[in-house]
Design brief:
mainly alpha; MFS general substrate transporter; Growth Hormone, Chain: A; 557 residues; membrane; MFS_dom; 1% strand; 74% helix; 22 helices; MFS; single chain
Length: 557
Amino acid sequence: MDESTSTLSSLKGKSNSASLRTAASSQVALPLTDFDLEDLQEKQGDDWKPQKNELIIMISLATISLMVSLDATILVTVLPDIARVLNGTSVDAFWAGTSYLLTSAIFQPVIASISEVFGRQQLLLFSITFFTIGSILCAVANDFQVLLAGRSIQGIGGGGIITLSQVIYCDFVPLRQRPKYFAMVLGAWSIVGTIIGPVIGGTLVEKANWRWVFYINFPFCFLGFILALIFIKLNAVSHLTFSEMLQRTDWVGAILFISGMTSFLIGLSWGGVQYAWDSAQTLVPIIVGLGGVAVFALWQWYKPSNTLLPKSLFYCSSAVAAFSCAFANGLVLLAALYYVPFFAMAVRGSSSVKAGIDVFPALFLLIPGSILVSILSTRLGRFRWAIWGGWAITILGTGLMIMFNEDTKTPVWSTVLAVLGIGCGMILTSVNVGIQAISKIEDCAMAASMYGFMRSVGMPIGVSLSGAIFQNAMSSKLTALGLPSSIAHDSERYVFVLRKMAPTNPTRIAALQAYVYGFRGVWILMTAVSGSAFMISLLIKKFDMDKILLSKFSARQ
């Protein structure tokens, strides 16, 4: 018997106890006998299929996910143009991407936890509303202050949509079948958002203007709100009054978590990009943030009930290792999504549209890798093989990227990115499935949310560390070549300066060498993180995917 033990056996041991039916388990009636549990397990077995209302919810969530996935990647090829039009610096462009990622990551577990009390549909509508308001602010922005405010609000809504999509699947789809059916959302996210997003962004900039990057969200926002209002309806176990809902929500924990993580991540993002790592502007928010997170952890540990995050999420070394892999996956994936198109524009001389196309091999093969893992995980009931194989392939891909330079041929470029896409795609699904298999039955929904948080928090940290390494490496190379290091601090806008220079211009040749050197530092970081994650993943032990589904919510008939 594996480390998770048999879920059925553990439940049988408690089947005569009235305490089994708590607020954390809704789809099973008491008293439960061994026969009831075996019957329930059979209904949730290999032949489980969604009912009509459940299938409609899945399709609705896939559609709603489109706008978040599109917005997360469409800006990648547009940032240099936005920085130029709004007279922003390289730091401004950096924060246009990072502000969204920060708020998206921080609010995911908070929104998921509050939805346990106030309801999934209500928090999903709240998230779509915030995403819409943020999109409006971004679309009308005439300076970076308004743009950054809009991106931050967008991030809150986007993070809520991402995490609630995961959590709602946990409410009615058994774990063994979850990878296969969640591929519907994953496919929508990957195909439309990840693959088409950068190309659409580049096309809109060249054919219209950068504001259309945000205008395009409005039809999706309207459609998403209608779908969530009409179709995504879930029944809760108990009917609490509004006053009881307020009392059961861990508001203190939410405030401590949001404030602590915000301070920590802002300081970390500033380090090496906006301020020196040893400056007060960097160290103070990091220290204050760590202190806030420590106070939050103590509050969660000693609070008797209704905590924001269950302590049992990290009950074993396998859980900690799996969450670490989610963090590393987010870091590597976003570093690639930001710096591969940037490399294409700066070094390969690609236009915004061409840069989106250049990254296509990685993004296109991200989907088959994820879907293949989804199908095989459902069929085999195993997930560790995909985690280990995914990291091994990712290490190969990032390692080969270190060879990229001004003379890299397109076939080589495409092959290396394809390898990277396959590896990241395998990890994307397998770590998610693994975390839910490792988690305790009553924690499955919050475990899915914590997976999203760890992956999302890895994204801004990945962009931040990559930005610091790129800027410092490029600055040192520029100085060595006799060029001003200030070019590295304005690297996005300087791409347009390079395009106006003759191919034989000595300044252009030297600047390209500096760009390549800076990007090489990013590829080395990605390789190191991937290697570390592979070693950590070896700590994950065998767990059973045949878990009985116990949830507070069920799809409304």
